């Protein structure tokens, strides 16, 4: 009886056969059941397409949903301006660093060490296409040594991605430091 109810719910939520057919041939019924409780069709389709694209298991899909990947991507998209060269769906916001296992009180150096220790999970938190380049990248600017915390590369953007870690309230000087590095 419960399976019949789920099948009816599925047919109501996914009336377009042209969208459902390719997904249904590549995913299990268990995958479909995971997305049925979601509130919007856009969210359901996003998670199912991610499962297909990333060959994600049912458990992996459940984890993706629990980390609110779709919702975080939507928040990031609202921050990309019309004139931006950054493609939509590139980033998510906010980033969740609970995977690092840090306590409530930690230093910037602790955050950096934890990120490097958990590099794979950290990189996947940013999304697809990122690769680690260097830690504490040394740059000489106006005869002064500066060190960028983490340098990554995104192969979809074909761009380097600079990560300067700051713990606490964002200060104007932090933005200036990043602009200096990006020049």
Structure description:
The chain has helices spanning 2-13, 17-26, 29-35, 41-53, 58-66, 69-78, 108-117, 119-126, 172-182, and strands at 130-141, 144-154, 159-163. 11% of the residues are buried. A hairpin with a 4-residue loop joins strand 2 and strand 3 (159-163). The chain is built from 9 helices and 3 strands. It is of the alpha+beta class. Helix 3 packs parallel to helix 5 and helix 4 (41-53) packs across helix 5 (58-66). It has a 3-stranded antiparallel beta sheet with strand order 1-2-3, sandwiched between helices. The model has no long low-confidence stretch (mean pLDDT 80).
Order of strands in the sheet with most strands: 1-2-3
**Content-based structural category:** alpha+beta
Give unreliable regions as ranges.
none
Give the count of helical stretches. 9
List the quaternary state of the chains. Answer: single chain
Overall pLDDT score = 80
**Head-to-tail CA distance between termini:** 63 Å
The count of DSSP E runs of length 2 or more, i.e. the number of strands, is: 3
Summarize the structure.
With 183 residues, the protein is of the alpha+beta class.
Present the secondary structure layout.
Layout: H1 2-13, H2 17-26, H3 29-35, H4 41-53, H5 58-66, H6 69-78, H7 108-117, H8 119-126, E1 130-141, E2 144-154, E3 159-163, H9 172-182
Antiparallel strand pairs: 1-2, 2-3
Helix pairs in contact: 3-5, 4-5
């Amino acid at each position: 009886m419960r399976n019949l109810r789920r099948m009816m719910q599925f047919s109501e939520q996914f009336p377009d056969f042209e969208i459902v057919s390719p997904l249904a041939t590549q995913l299990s019924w268990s995958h479909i059941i995971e997305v049925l409780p979601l509130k919007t069709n856009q969210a359901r389709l996003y998670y199912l397409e991610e499962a297909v694209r990333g060959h994600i298991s049912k458990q992996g899909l459940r984890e993706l949903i629990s980390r609110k990947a779709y919702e975080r991507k939507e928040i990031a998209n609202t921050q990309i301006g019309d004139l931006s060269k950054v493609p939509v769906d590139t980033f998510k916001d906010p980033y969740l660093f609970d995977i690092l296992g840090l306590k409530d009180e930690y230093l910037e150096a602790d955050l950096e060490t934890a990120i490097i220790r958990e590099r794979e999970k950290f990189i996947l938190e940013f999304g697809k296409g990122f690769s680690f380049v260097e830690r504490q990248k040394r740059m000489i600017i106006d005869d002064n040594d500066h060190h960028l915390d983490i340098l990554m590369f995104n192969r979809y953007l074909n761009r380097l991605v600079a990560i300067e870690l700051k713990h606490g309230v964002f200060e104007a000087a932090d933005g200036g430091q990043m602009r200096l590095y990006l020049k």
